[in-house]
Amino acid sequence: MEGLMTIVKEGWRYKGSGNVMWMAHRISGLGIMFFLILHVFGMSMSFFNPALHEIMLETYKTPLFAVGELGLAACLVFHSINGTRIALLELRPEWWLQQKKATQYSLVATVVIGVPMILIMAMASINHFVK
């Protein structure tokens, strides 16, 4: 948790969209990493402690984890599109002059791809828990 607080504190030290995107990229990466650690641990319990694995699977079927899946989806979409933007800017250093435009395009792409996907996932979760 201390690392996350450092990222937030240092990210707000400088102003500008570049640093906000940097912070959002780091935070979304931390969210993805948290999921991967939880996933690997949970799946390893199927071998080391099957009873705990079953308990974890039941916990994953709760509404709280359904909301967490939506957050994970948002993190994955943003992180992948922003990472592509960063990679393209690194491959073509002259494009750094267009960083503001590239940031706008990546945010639009995140919304265009992410919102429908998250809405579909949310509707599936609602249908699952309401029935």
For the secondary structure, the number of strands is 0
Domain module count: 1
Counting H and I runs of at least 4 residues, what is the number of helices? Answer: 5
Mass-distribution shape = globular
Main beta-sheet strand count, sense and barrel state: none
CATH structural fold name: 3 helical TM bundles of succinate and fumarate reductases
Mean of the pLDDT scores?
Answer: 89
Could you list the spans in which at least 5 consecutive residues all have pLDDT below 50? none
Q: End-to-end span in angstroms?
A: 37 Å
Q: N-to-C SSE series?
A: HHHHH
> Which structural category fits the helices and strands?
mainly alpha
CATH class, named Mainly Alpha
Query: What fraction of the residues are assigned to beta strands by DSSP?
Result: under 5%
Overall helicity: over 70%
Looking at the overall shape, the CATH architecture is Up-down Bundle
Task: Using the CA coordinates, give the radius of gyration.
Answer: 18 Å
Task: Give a verbal description of the structure.
Helix 1 (2-11) packs antiparallel against helix 2, helix 2 packs across helix 3 (50-60) and helix 4 (63-91) packs antiparallel against helix 5. The longest helix is centred in the N-terminal third of the chain and has 32 residues, at 17-48. The chain is built from five helices and no strands. It has 131 residues and is mainly α. The protein is globular. It has a single domain, classed as 3 helical TM bundles of succinate and fumarate reductases (Up-down Bundle), CATH 1.20.1300. The protein starts with a helix and ends with a helix. The chain has helices at residues 2-11, 17-48, 50-60, 63-91, 99-130.
